[in-house]
From TrEMBL:
It comes from the Eukaryota. The keyword Membrane applies. Pfam families: ROH1-like (PF05633). Residues 196-216 have a biased composition (Low complexity). The keyword GTP-binding does not apply. GO terms for cellular component: membrane. This is EF-hand domain-containing protein. Keywords: Membrane, Transmembrane, Transmembrane helix. Its main location: membrane. It is a single-pass membrane protein. It is found in: Membrane.
Length: 405
């Protein structure tokens, strides 16, 4: 059915969609809707399935409509997680309203596969939370550097810092450089062993029944009992494995539900990959291959964003970065420039060098503000993704037990 429902959509989207989104938002979205309603088959008669496809397409069109400076910024990452949460919430009733059908083959297998992918994403959420913690520690070191170089900002008319102030600044910059070069900071087992599901909010969001409590404990253990050989790269590969777009006979046999199940699986995989690429994570890797048929209305923006992320990871200055987050790039660049400025044995510093130093310190101060304001909400969103997946699974198990009684 994807070919029947979405035939011709690939030609409507450009691979460089992120730069041309405003020009396609109007007429082509209406054209997509028209093709959906004209399609034959059971799904064409179910407006909620069509509305879900449009919801996913709209959100990822918005995400793709960003310039190179905004891509992979902290605000963009938060927008991505918000889009995932909205799409997941739109997907959930599609299953719950048809649970009597889903409990039977072949839908039971498709739902089980998606559930398995979603459970694997819980550990990635834990790894991402550890990455947020590392960014917080990075922010603390930034404050030390800014404090050490504060006289350069407070008194720009002076011809240089005193030697004692420069020594303090050099020491703070050296410590920051070590932290930026710590490739294993996200792999500390004690960090990964703290599950997002252990917070009090997890219990309040779960089912109040005894069976729901037992299942909640089970899902906690899935993320907290990770062995030392656990690999984030392999986890991402496991989520994407055997994720094939449904064929016509599968769509017909599932009353059209195979399409939204595949859609939310693709959205989950893309969100987890982007999260891992952006922030410091254990054995982080940028996987270049993302196999999604362009016949889906949401495929072009997702592929466009993914290709731009891969290109960003290939840049010489980003290959050894702890993360592709825009703010990390700013910190690394400013730290390198400040190190060069403070290592120069010139007392006093020239006015030109003093002005350059002041600009770099002010840029670091701005990054510090962004981290302070953005890391808390980002962590809350990662926790919400964790809890939403977990509680949705619990809800599904409860429905399944009611159906089989």
């Amino acid at each position: 059915m994807p070919a029947a429902v979405c035939q011709g959509l690939a030609s409507s989207f450009s691979p460089s969609l992120g730069r041309f989104v405003p020009s396609i938002r109007g007429d082509q979205i209406h054209a997509i809707d028209a093709r959906h309603h004209m399609a034959a088959g059971a799904a064409a008669e179910q407006p909620d399935l069509l509305a879900f496809q449009r919801c996913v397409a709209d959100h990822f069109l918005d995400l793709a409509d960003v310039d190179a400076d905004g891509l992979l910024s902290l605000s963009w990452l938060r927008k991505l997680l918000h889009s995932f949460l909205v799409c997941h919430e739109a997907f959930r009733p599609l299953l719950l309203d048809r649970w009597s059908v889903i409990a039977r083959p072949p839908l039971d297998r498709l739902v089980a596969d998606f559930t398995d992918r979603a459970v694997k994403a819980l550990d990635i959420c834990n790894a991402a939370r550890d990455g947020v913690d590392q960014l917080r520690r990075l922010g603390t070191h930034l404050e030390i550097v800014i404090s050490a170089l504060a006289p350069a900002v407070a008194s720009p008319s002076r011809l240089g810092l005193r030697e004692g102030q420069l020594r303090r600044a050099r020491k703070a910059l050296a410590e920051l450089a070590v932290m930026l070069d710590d490739r294993d900071a996200g792999s500390v087992p004690s960090h990964r062993n703290r599950s997002l599901g252990r917070s009090g909010s997890a219990g309040s969001s779960s089912s109040s029944s005894p069976s729901g409590s037992r299942r909640l404990s089970h899902f906690r253990s899935l993320s907290s009992s990770v062995s030392r050989s656990w690999s984030l790269v392999r986890q991402l590969q496991a989520i994407g494995s055997n994720m094939a777009a449904p064929r016509g006979h599968e769509v017909e046999a599932t009353a059209g539900l195979a399409v939204p199940i595949y859609t939310i699986s693709a959205v989950l995989l893309f969100a987890m990959r982007s999260l891992v690429a952006a922030i410091p994570c254990h054995d982080r890797s940028i996987q270049a291959h993302l196999s999604i048929p362009r016949t889906f209305p949401w495929a072009a923006p997702i592929i466009s964003i993914h290709e731009r992320i891969v290109e960003e990871s290939k840049k010489k200055e980003r290959r050894n970065s702890t993360g592709l987050l825009k703010e990390i790039q700013q910190i690394e660049r400013c730290t390198h420039q400040l190190t060069e400025l403070t290592q120069a044995n010139q007392f006093p510093m020239s006015e030109e060098k003093q002005e350059e130093l002041r600009q770099r310190v002010e840029e670091l101060a701005q990054v510090c503000v962004v981290l302070k304001e953005g890391l808390g909400p980002l962590e809350c969103q990662v926790r919400e993704v964790f809890l939403r997946i977990m509680c949705s699974r619990i809800e599904g198990l409860d429905r399944l037990s009611q159906t089989t009684q």
